[in-house]
Design brief:
The structure is a homodimer of 266-residue chains. Chain A has helices spanning 29-38, 97-107, 128-142, 156-161, 181-188, 205-212, 229-243; strands at 12-14, 24-27, 46-50, 56-65, 68-78, 86-90, 112-117, 149-150, 154-155, 168-172, 179-180, 193-197, 217-221. The first copy, chain A, is an alpha/beta fold and 266 residues long. Chain A folds into two domains: 12-78, Beta Barrel (Ribosomal Protein L25, Chain P), CATH 2.40.240; 86-243, 3-Layer(aba) Sandwich (Alpha/beta knot), CATH 3.40.1280. In chain A, the strands form two sheets. In chain A, strands 6, 7, 8, 9, 10, 11, 12 and 13 form an eight-stranded parallel sheet that branches. In chain A, helix 2 runs parallel beside helix 3 (128-142) and helix 2 runs parallel beside helix 7. The longest helix of chain A has 15 residues, at 128-142. The interface between A and B is large, with 52 and 53 residues.
């Protein structure tokens, strides 16, 4: 057992298993390797685990085997809290930029990540496993209690075909009529929301025209510069979170858990 | 001369020279190579140039030599407009992440980029040439008419020693007392502003305490998740631009110039 104060945890892991006191949790080869050979943890060391349903728990390493690690769940550290109801629809970008979108959108608290193909979308497929791995890693790192739901990629028109009537879709449009984002979001107020970010080449004009006719679409402008798609993702999510999301509340619950220098979580 | 409509430009370049009709502009080896061998431009082709003072101009390639290219400035395309007065003070990050900060902060419209060393800042030096090259590239790409001023890196305390009394410094604090960012920025209103983003490991508690005592410092919170420093840069800048900066205005001037698919600017 490495030298650490009682209660301190050496990392945070997302798991699928149910979490409750005394529950056993098995980790796969990759996680076991990470704990043993990267973090150099041993039997008796503690990690934090969360599964998106049962809050965050301290769990203690029982032992390692060839390609596995088992943990026993001990005390609860945080109770599950509701996450904002915020979807991100985005045109897939090339590798590197799409990794970034998954990481940043997760940090920014989206509940659903949804790749959609627009007319000028360059990549015509998405590596969903890679997207999910990036989202999980970001959730572990940023102290989220959940991982965004990853929805099957679809052509934009199909994604919008069964759109829920009460959910506003903020269209981040680099051309055409659009109101300043803060003004439009303030007027809309808190509600189930989604943001739509186009591809690097922008939306097609006909696409913007069609989108503008949909009753749930609110075109918004992100200022006078042309933002890269990955920049627009973070920027638009920041506007929503700060005006209508979980960045609006004062108080202890809304501040990140304090991470002391002696208790790294990564 | 490649086949392009009159007036169309094939790329956008930042130059140091004064710009006015008939003026000659020389490009260095790297730019000349880029125009000739990457974009495959030739004598008579047009590019757009800007220098941060004289607006944006169409310029025509006169010819290439060994390691140079000369242009003649033709018509003005856009007049110079005022940029927001917004500084970004940030703790240097490792390569990759700091490139990202330079790119994103430029797209987000900062007027001054200022690396500052905090107690837990990991890299102890900054490659200013690289930072500047990233900022220039982003300015060319995002249709800005200027490049952020790059200030000599300093320890945080020294950067704050001669702070202008009328400039608010929004401290993006992951711990301690801080008001929700939108609320704090709305109350402060439009004014000369600066944002301070700490290092990956966060500020030291004593550092936060000292910062909190300075009359121009406004601590702000960015929600319940721990954001990476590079995420916090884009998010905090988006809040300021959308509430107090140049994303607030309606109207033609505040929409990006339309970039048609047949007129790529990169």
């Amino acid at each position: 057992m490495t030298d650490q104060p009682q209660g301190a945890v050496k990392t945070r892991l997302y798991v699928e298993s149910p979490l409750a006191e005394g529950q056993s949790v098995g980790l796969d080869h990759e996680r076991a390797h990470f704990l043993r050979h990267v973090l150099r943890l041993d039997r008796g060391d503690a990690v934090a685990v969360f599964n998106g349903r049962d809050g965050e728990w301290r769990a203690v390493i029982d032992g390692f085997g060839k390609g596995w690690c088992s943990l026993t769940v001990a005390q609860q550290r945080r109770v599950q809290s509701a996450a904002p109801d915020l979807w991100l629809l985005f045109a897939p970008l090339k590798k590197g930029r799409i990794d970034f979108v998954a990481e940043k959108a997760t940090e920014m608290g989206v509940s659903r990540l949804w790749p959609v193909f627009t007319r000028r979308t360059d990549p015509n497929r998405v590596n969903s496993d890679r997207l999910r791995a990036n989202a999980i890693e970001a959730a572990e790192q940023c102290e989220r209690l959940s991982v965004p739901e990853l929805v099957e990629p679809l052509p934009l028109a199909r994604a919008l075909a069964d759109w829920p009537a009460d959910r506003r879709l903020f269209l981040c449009a680099e051309a055409g009529n659009a109101r300043p984002i803060a003004e439009a979001m303030r007027e809309t107020g808190p509600c189930p929301a989604a943001l739509l970010i186009g591809p690097e080449g922008g939306f097609d004009q006909s696409e913007l025209d069609e989108l503008g006719k949909l009753p749930f679409v609110v075109p918004v402008g992100l200022g006078p510069r042309i933002l890269r798609a990955d920049t627009a993702v973070v920027a638009a999510l920041a506007c929503w979170q700060s005006l209508s999301g979980d960045w609006t509340a004062d108080g202890g619950d809304t501040r990140p858990p304090f991470r002391s220098p002696t208790e790294p979580t990564v």
